[in-house]
Amino acid sequence: MVYFGKTADTANVFVSDLPTDSGLIETSAPTVTYGSVRDLGLYAGDTVCFRIYAYDLARVTARSVSTTSRCWSRYSTVSG
After folding, report:
1. What is the pTM of this model?
2. In the chain, domain spans
3. Pairing of strands 70-73, 77-79
4. How far is CA 20 from CA 17, 30, 73, 78, in A?
5. What is the pLDDT of residue 62?
6. pLDDT per residue over 38-68, tens digit each?
7. Would 39 disulfide with which of 8, 30, 35, 63, CB 3.0-4.6 Å?
8. 3-class state of residue 46 by DSSP
9. Which residues neighbour 24 within 8 Å (Cβ) at sequence distance 6 or greater?
10. Distance in angstroms (rounded) separating the CA atoms of residues 29 and 7
11. For the chain, how big is the Rg over CA atoms in Å?
12. DSSP state of 5
């Protein structure tokens, strides 16, 4: 599951779920694209942070194994 926010602490807005059996991602090299304005409501100069959670086949999320939020500005990496 993918969450986003404008700071690492607020990266808790659900944006998508990408189950490996959905056919929406290549499991050997997963990637997803979002429209910055259309999907995330971002504009030039905004910062965006993503947090990704994995879950098991029973769809039980293991929040303790989540990745650290990664943040980027429109022009450069700002943390992470």
Report:
1. 0.68
2. 1-75
3. antiparallel
4. 10, 9, 29, 30
5. 54
6. 888 888 888 888 888 777 666 665 554 455 6
7. 35
8. coil
9. 18, 32
10. 26
11. 13
12. E
Residue 47 near residue 78 (C-beta atoms within 8 A) = yes
**C-alpha torsion 71→67→51→11, nearest 10:** -80
For residues 69 and 53, the answer to whether their CB atoms sit within 8 Å is no
| Tokens 């992470």 found at | 80
Phi, psi of 63 (to 5 degrees): -60, -25
| 65: phi then psi, degrees, rounded to nearest 5 | -105, 20
Q: What gap in Å lies between CA 4 and CA 53, rounded to an integer?
A: 11
Q: For residue 59, which amino acid is it?
A: R
Q: Are 16 and 53 in contact (CB under 8 A)?
A: no
Location of structure tokens 């504009």: 43
Q: Find the length of the chain.
A: 80
Convert the pLDDT of each residue in 68-79 to its tens digit. Answer: 677 877 644 444
Beta-strand relationship, 47-52 and 70-73: antiparallel
